Amino acid sequence: MKTRMLGRSGLEVSAIGLGCMGMSEFYGAIDEAEAIDTIHRAIELGITFLDTADIYGSGHNEILVGRAIAGKRDQVVLATKFGNVRGEDGSFIGINGQPAYVRAACEASLKRLRVDVIDLYYQHRVDPDTPIEDTVGAMAELVAEGKVRYLGLSEAGPETIRRAAAVHPIAALQSEYSLWTREPEGEIFDTVRALGIGFVPYSPLGRGFLTGQITKIEDLDEDDWRRKGPRFQGESFQRNLDLVEQVKVMAEDKGCTPAQLALAWVLAQGNDIVPIPGTKRRRYLEENVGALDVRLTQEDLDRLDSIAPMGAASGSRYPEAAMKALNR
């Protein structure tokens, strides 16, 4: 397994990570046994970078990951997140970055994961009502106490990133990035690279759309959260299918799958970029790892730029309420 450094933090991880969210919620039916087998297979393949969050399954995902890595803790770099608050019924309450909440959330995550230390602890969303200096200051205290090793932010804008980094080194920024979500290019990339911060793209396969496996809305389970996504609805769905068709044609030319081509493109954007494609099945995990063997020439990259330039995807990436939670 190839490895990459997350910026200048000193944190080394596998060149591809594993997003565990879908093993507990949002993407249809759950199979815990297959999910745990998938995590074990990832470790066998040399994937060291596992990503979860306290919000996924309202804590279920952290418990699941904790079970899966029991006896294998020294083989993984464990990342989790705090900040999105849910009610007991699963409803979304809001965002909390207050220092007391940061500490309480960390203690709860450590307990669910059954570990002594979290390798990379992200603020999942920026709290607009709490100065970032206060939130990161509380996170830094967790580092000083040995409960957390490295700090990260998610979906933070350039100014917030700079203010956070002035309080404590930030190892990674996790934000959505793929062939159909290219907004981080420009100021975000410039900011994290200037500060020595690694970039961790989530949804590098466009929530599965770029795999070519979704051709009609009925391909998604009735309770699949993606059905509510603007890019999966109405005319946007068809326009995005047309984009993916071009990716499929190019993948066939390259002798790889569309998913592998889409991941190879993300990997080619810089050695400081570590995508975390999510999957809950071993066969897709193994397919994703195969992206590391796909070599893209400059001609290939130019072709993909023409297929999926900035803003090519139709529809916003979240429903309106979730879009408002992004820090820009």
Would you write up a description of this structure?
Helix content is 37%, strand content 14%. By secondary structure, it is an alpha/beta fold. The chain has a seven-stranded parallel β-sheet. A two-stranded antiparallel sheet has the order 1-2. The protein is globular.
Which SSEs are present, and which pair or pack?
Elements: E1 3-5, E2 12-14, E3 18-19, H1 32-44, E4 49-51, H2 60-68, E5 77-82, E6 84-86, E7 92-95, H3 99-113, E8 118-123, H4 132-144, E9 148-154, H5 158-167, E10 172-176, H6 187-195, E11 198-202, H7 234-254, H8 258-267, H9 282-289, H10 298-307, H11 320-323
Parallel strand pairs: 3-4, 4-5, 5-8, 8-9, 9-10, 10-11
Antiparallel strand pairs: 1-2, 6-7
Structural class category: alpha/beta
Q: Helical region count?
A: 11
Our measurement of the CA-to-CA distance between the termini, rounded to an integer number of angstroms, reads 35 Å
Low-confidence runs (pLDDT<50, min 5 residues)?
Answer: none
Instruction: Round the Cα radius of gyration to an integer and report it.
Output: 19 Å
| Strands, total number | 11
Largest beta sheet, briefly? 7 strands, parallel
Would you summarize the structure shown here?
This protein has 328 residues and is an alpha/beta fold. It has helices at residues 32-44, 60-68, 99-113, 132-144, 158-167, 187-195, 234-254, 258-267, 282-289, 298-307, 320-323; strands spanning 3-5, 12-14, 18-19, 49-51, 77-82, 84-86, 92-95, 118-123, 148-154, 172-176, 198-202. Helix 4 (132-144) crosses helix 5, helix 5 (158-167) runs parallel beside helix 6 (187-195) and helix 7 crosses helix 8.
